[in-house]
Fold this protein.
Amino acid sequence: MNNHSQNGRIAVYALTSQGAELGLKLSQGLDADLYLSKNAANSYSTARSFGSLKQIVQENFENYAGHIFIAASGLVVRLICPLLAGKEKDPGIVVLDQYGNFAVSLVSGHLGNANELARETAVITGGSPVITTATDNMGIEAIDVLAMEKDMFISNLQAIRTVNSALLEDKKILVFDPENRLGLDTEERFVFVSGIEQIKQNSPAIIVNWRDIQPPDPQNHLVLRPRVLVAGIGCNSGTSAQEILQHLQNTFSFFGLSLKSLKLLSSTSKKQDEPGLLEAAKQLELSITFVPHEELEHIQVPNPSSNVKKNMGVSSICEATALHQTNMGKLLVQKTKSLNSTLAVALQSCT
């Protein structure tokens, strides 16, 4: 399940003894955390008890990918309303009656995966999912759902409405996707163009690119950033996260690359405990992969270094690890240097 929270887990809440039985069934079926009111929690050893539903929801809201409430929808609306921050940030919210007859996708149906969570919930309870999203009800895959499936960052959320509305009205949508990463080339409703200059103002359009190009009309031209870039990093011991991040930002800016398309950082396993690297990845909210050091010597790079060979035993760190993590993809940025770090950027091939 795609989600905004880091742990990817689901929380289930119930207030009554009957709701507790259903909550246990859901927590087992979804591998979710079960929260029960103090009165209902005594008989369930795996449940976490709460005195105030409002308080526990406030504490939990941002820590879970989704929340399922076995409670009245009006109660849930009042509870979560002050906590909502926007559909790009909100977790999926599903409301369920205590008999399990209806699983209502209440908030963040697409980006928070509440629609899918409602479907999964209904399968477990034997009930019916209640989904009001227009594209789902017409059997059309919404563009934001497709973007999530393809691991793309949505740059301008306001344009989703324009594109999805065009889908519902069966209008033609212009697409600039030179590598066909969305896979829409066989769909008749999409018209491919070879450059963004062919996209007209006020026309619904989708731009898919890892370069930092800007849409002519941000309200109507949806920009998707495929996460397909890997930054290989080498550094001296004690290099600060600030220097690494500044080097990264300067390089992406100079070469016209979007940081939103950065998938992960990579380095050698000999740097796996380097504080600056770990902190840089944390601040970027990205994974960092440490390639086994012995594998790097076998990777051919355009800029092997005798100095790196002398000190590290291999001829390359940044270029070699970037290529390694993209399955020998295209090296977009060859080795660049700051005072204490080296950086290369490779592109993941289309699959």
